[in-house]
């Protein structure tokens, strides 16, 4: 039976600020290597020895992340992914229901449901556990994966397991989901050997999930079914019937179905498969330090970092050299527009900083200085009263929308590649070191007709320079037009 990866990619990861932002959350960041957490998740079944794997992952996300996700999947060689766009967030149970409804249109695969923002450092061990889970799922079980705890953790929910099952190799009956415990209870759980951390990773046949959600959450099942029935397809994107999906209740996979399986044993048995594969949900910076490669003093680094007399410290340098001197048990995170310094024991409190910035109306929680668009990206490298300077990179063959601005004029200087420019009634090519001026109110467009990235410097001037001063007349990527 075919296994199909279902990747849930909707979270914002505020505790990993300033690297993680609302428009570019942690699953899109390369936190532990060269690839992003999303890319690592999509490759988790690469060369899987335990059965046939559908090469097209099914990603459930929102409208804002769609182009970034499609581009990141393209970069790792994934062709024709199925990207379901949720018009509003409704938690994980509706997301999985959407995925199951899409999947059953092509058969009845086993769905491997994974959050996009987890770290798995031991892929062989992970795939071994998945093979065990697939055997149970093929027989109609609803499988979850329990992380073998290495410490009494109060920040995770737990799974209570029962007897070993005929599938062997550690698979056990799933008896109960347990909320986050206090310290003494967590210690008792770990000592018993019957409790596992709740990983949020699940496995079941698409039809089995749909039967369960129709039994336990019929209103949710109906709303999701109508949303998929009325969907439209746009390249790799599946756009739902918005009004129908908005009627869906919000609930998690655990609460909606998994905790209720004992009420309807005919739907399938709950199974927990122990997983010991270097798992982390990377919930905060101290968790990232724990799974990162370290030097002899316990220091972990990303980017250009110098340690001098430091111990057990994480430095994440995004844009420049960071030198740490005499730091112990610290976290330092540098981005082009913000720096965060915290003791490792207080990294959970980063969310309080994010809350304060939001309350003050600061945009630092929403986006990075470098902003990704479907055609490429731009970096706002300088700004002042009535001016802004951007570095813009346009991918080969891509084009910006045909647009105009009410409040600003623009100068474009080509520094790399060839630009095809529409400026009012004229269309022409610009080579390196050539420029053009776009007066306020002129219809204009920038395209890259070449085979290498086009890079320009844009100087904006005017009374208002916000990104919402754009009137689109035509857009290749389906964004709203006038």
Automatic annotation (TrEMBL):
One GO process term, biological-process aspect: polysaccharide biosynthetic process
Principal EC category: transferase
Keyword Transmembrane helix: no
InterPro entries recorded: GMPP_N, Man1P_GuaTrfase/Man6P_Isoase, Man6P_isomerase-2_C, ManC/GMP-like_b-helix, Mannose-6P_isomerase_type2, NTP_transferase_dom, Nucleotide-diphossugar_trans, RmlC-like_jellyroll
Keyword Chaperone: no
Family that this chain belongs to: Belongs to the mannose-6-phosphate isomerase type 2 family.
Name by which UniProt lists this protein: mannose-1-phosphate guanylyltransferase
